Amino acid sequence: MPLDQLSERFRRKQSGTQYRTLLQVLHIDIVLLLSVVLLMTVGLFILYSASNQNSAIFSQGIMHIGLALLIMIVLAQLSPITYARWSLSLFIVSLLLLALVLVIGHIDKGAQRWLNFGLFRFQPSELMKLSLPMMLAWYYQTSNLPPKFKEICIGILLTLLPALLTLKEPDLGTAIILLIAGGGILLFAGIQWRYILGTTFVAAVSAPFLWRAMHDYQKQRILTFLNPARDPLGTGYHIIQSKIAIGSGGIFGKGWLQGTQSHLHFLPAHATDFIFAVFGEEFGFIGSVILLLIYLAIVARCIYITSQAQTTYTRLLAGTLTLILFTSVFINIGMVCGILPVVGLPLPLVSYGGSSMVITLASLGLLMSIHGHQQLLSH
């Protein structure tokens, strides 16, 4: 082989090595990063359409993404040991913020979910999606797994406390996510089947009491889910219009900016909770499948990172954060398509909303930290 060709191959190999080393130094998972950036790019296009080409909302969406990406990269630099040390403190702060929001929180559309800091509003229940898994993973890392009855009861108590505070706002969607996170981490910790069956029995017996404790609008959402036509101009309006939007998209969709349900204001919350309906109308079945495949790539990468985690804390934390992401996507798309009740959850990394965007990318930053520092230790 000529010397110049050999030198060129060496330079390429050396350049690739430097590139991989840079990623390892920054603890950035390139597969996860590219998938997330692709999804958020798609999200910006659909947000521009869903907001009726509102440049202010579009600019704020870009700012949310920029801030969230910066936070993700910063969090990826910290080691899981640091997060384990912060877990209890962050959980306590999150609980205090949840209690504070019930006292002085900003009220919007009948819900008291935000703290107003002047320049921005923040939703403490979103922070709890991060701090609850960290707290439970920290608690169970010091236990002999599978957890005993006392440890299970403590885990349930730690889960119910923020879930009930969130339900009080009211925010049924986030409360469900917190309950799923608490239950998921118990499953990952190896809870015995007798406890699972016992909890299922207690939940079934408690169902009538939970129904009485629910707000009237929450009861109406469940009844509307069972039969949307019972109140087509009231509680059933959201889901009926959403299904019309998705169905009218057909196979290939109407085209970007060509949707009618959102642009003519038939579809409520078209830039937030029901943004998938806008996407389905404009990009059709094919576009929706592609969007789901991007989500699948992100979740699959998160599952891989979880499988490679080396400690109890990192395995439980990574698994629960992955479960929260998957469940949030599943519930949002399920309610928009009419197969689940409407509970008010944004579509991760696509819906408009700063708190949700920041916390979702922060959780991915923790996953990158787990994977990146693990690779550093293994070399």
Question: How would you characterize this protein structure?
Answer:
This protein is mainly α and 379 residues long. It has one domain (39-378). It is built from 13 helices and three strands; from the N terminus they run ααααβββααααααααα. The chain has helices at 3-26, 30-50, 55-77, 80-104, 124-141, 149-168, 172-188, 193-213, 216-226, 237-248, 275-308, 312-337, 354-378; strands spanning 106-108, 111-116, 121-122. The chain has a three-stranded antiparallel β-sheet with strand order 1-2-3, covered by helices on one side. Strand 2 (111-116) and strand 3 (121-122) form a beta hairpin. Helix 2 packs antiparallel against helix 11 (275-308), helix 6 (149-168) packs antiparallel against helix 7 (172-188) and helix 10 packs across helix 11 (275-308). The protein is globular and about 55 Å long. The two termini are 33 Å apart.
